[in-house]
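Reopening this one. Same input as before:
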Amino acid sequence: MAQTADRDGNRALRARLDDVYGQYQRLRSDLDQIQRRLTDLRATAESADGLIRATVGPRGQLVDLHLDRHIHRDLDPTELSREIVATTAAAAAKATAEIERLMAGYLPADSGPMRFLRDDDLGSLLSRQDAAVREAGRDGE
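Same output, byte for byte:
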């Protein structure tokens, strides 16, 4: 009876490893295309009044800013600054969403990199490693 359970467990483990390896092979074969798409990624947002348009790259870095020529009549410098920041942040959020969409086909939703994209917390990238170190420390006690 124990041998049957072991064999069933081994089959399930083998199936899971085959699945993970298949995902890895697909990711590896698509890596160049993913890299190009990430490098070329641009996201644009426009202010509610249409006077500001910000475009960011894949890391949320501002790559283009368009200010309507009438903007100085409608906004004082403080308001203008706030609107530029808000519009750029909206474009950065769009870029992050596009990266998440692109990577969703390759990484599990609960993986560290995907959590990092959502919460921008470096701890998300390290959580699995931290857990492994804690577990290894308990095993050594």
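So the earlier flakiness isn't reproducible anymore. For the record, The two ends are 34 Å apart (CA to CA).
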